[in-house]
Amino acid sequence: MGLIGLSFIVASVVYVIIRPPSWLPPALLSWLPRSSTAAAAMTDARQRDEKSPSSPPPTIVEPREMGRAAAMSPPPVPTIAEPCEDRAAMPPPPPQPPKPVVVQPPSIAVEPDKQPESPTTPKAAAAQLPPPPPTFSLSTDSMPPPPPRPTPSSSSSTSSMMPPPPPPSRLSSAAPRPPTLGHFPAANSAQRARAPILPDRGPRSSSSSSSSSSGLAPPPTHTSVPTKPSRQITLEPGHSPLDWARLSGGPGADLRGVPAATPYLRVTPSMLRRQTGRRGTDAWMALGGKVYNVTPYAKFHPGGVPELMRGAARDGTRLFAEVHPWVNYENMLTACLVGILVEEPGPAAGSGGGGGGQPQSDMEAMD
Ligand code: HEM
Questions:
Q1: What is residue 88's predicted lDDT score, i.e. its pLDDT?
Q2: Is pLDDT larger for residue 275 or for residue 9?
Q3: Which regions are flagged for Polar residues bias (predicted)?
Q4: Could you tell me the distance, in angstroms and rounded to a whole number, from the CA of residue 160 to the centre of ligand 1?
Q5: What does the pLDDT read at residue 4?
Q6: In the β-sheet with 265-267, what is the strand arrangement from edge to edge?
Q7: How far apart are the C-alpha atoms of 363 and 367, rounded to whole Å?
Q8: What's the distance, CA 11 to chain centroid?
Q9: 97, CA 20 to 30 Å: which among 64, 182, 219, 316?
């Protein structure tokens, strides 16, 4: 109680100093300077605050101390700034717009006219956002229009572009074919016949007799091209026409199949019929009155072995002319020449000449 009473007395003295009543003698007022008196009163009040923390009296904070306290960032101490005469004499601060602060420091800057609502918790204010980063707009308004894409329907693009590749279906349908010898021999090749190969031997067989009413069939010419579809086959490797030309074109090439010293034979129809190409025999073929051993040529024949063997052991002149009259067989089969086809000797040895009716009939029968 004594302490409270003492405090009350001190407060009264301070109040009298701050607001001297009118009845106070003027001499007492001029005794001490006013500022020092106020400072002394403040010092006394602080000493009393330390002694009695349970009931903190209102503290007068001057503006200078307030600014220093804010700069040093002391722990937040709730203070109450009461208006004083100096503060009252100052013009009110202009209203300041709230400044956006990113992070508020823990110190509390207590303004004289404001009282913090929560003295311990710093409030976060609206943060000042940094300037937005530059952005890139993808809008087509600011971009130049892209060049027109070539379309198949545009005539200008098709003129400068290659045509599109064929669809895979077309590619797959066209199966890769090995190189064939479809157009061999060429038109100017030596394998082509240069003249009609068949002598006119009278009326043709029943297949062509309908067109020849006079009985004399024209010799086969290059204009009478057969209309049969191509039946060429795939030759084995090393059996191309060029390979055959290399094999049979040498100066000493002998592919006759007979002893080397054997002269050209006079081959009768009966002899020819035994050379069928089977049972270990060579296949002989008569073409234009000459007899050739066609066995070495069989695997080189573009039409295949079976087709070639259709003329084996017989006179294949007409058959040959029906298929490919343009082929120059004489040049191609020079190394295969066995002899000449002669008529069969007659049973009568004294008939002479080696020719009679029977051989002639055999020759015609072979055709
Ligand atoms: C007489 C029996 C013969 C028959 C039945 C026969 C049949 C054929 C056939 C069907 C073709 C395919 C024709 C085509 O693709 O259009 C052909 C092509 C050919 N044959 Fe014969 N052939 C025979 C005799 C010969 C002989 C003895 C030679 C050679 C001296 C020969 C040389 C050729 C040649 C070079 C070709 C290709 C012709 C070309 O592509 O223009 N053929 N043969």
A1: 43
A2: 275
A3: 222-233
A4: 47
A5: 80
A6: 265-267, 337-341, 290-293, 284-287, 314-315
A7: 7
A8: 97
A9: 64
> Using an 8 Å Cβ cutoff, are 327 and 287 in contact?
no
The CA-based angle 131-132-138, given to 5 degrees, is 150
Q: Residue 295: what residue type? A: T
CA distance 207 to 91: 139
Let me know: does 291 contact 338? Beta carbons within 8 Å.
Answer: yes
This prediction's pTM: 0.45
* Residue in 307, 318, 330, 366 to alter for ligand 1 test, most ligand atoms within 8 A of Cβ: 307
Structure ipTM? 0.96
Ligand 1, pocket residues at CB < 6 Å: 184-185, 191, 230-232, 285, 294, 301-303, 307-308, 310-311, 316, 319-320, 323-324, 327, 329, 332-333
Minimum-distance ligand 1 atom for the alpha carbon of 320: 1
Query: Bridge partners of 283?
Result: 276
pLDDT digits (tens, 9 = 90+) for 74-126: 444 444 444 444 444 455 555 555 554 444 444 444 444 444 444 456 556 55
Contact present, 354 and 342 (Cβ < 8 Å) = yes
- State which of 18-32, 101-115, 165-179 shows the largest mean pLDDT: 18-32
Using alpha carbons, list the distances in angstroms from residue 120 to 52, 76, 116: 22, 6, 9
Q: How far is the CA of 306 from the centre of ligand 1 (A)?
A: 11
Per-residue pLDDT, 101: 47
In angstroms, the CA 32 to CA 15 distance is 15
Average pLDDT over residues 225-232: 58
Distance from Cα 276 to the centre of ligand 1, integer Å: 18
Quote the radius of gyration of the chain (alpha carbons, Å). Answer: 67
Give the total residue count for the chain.
367
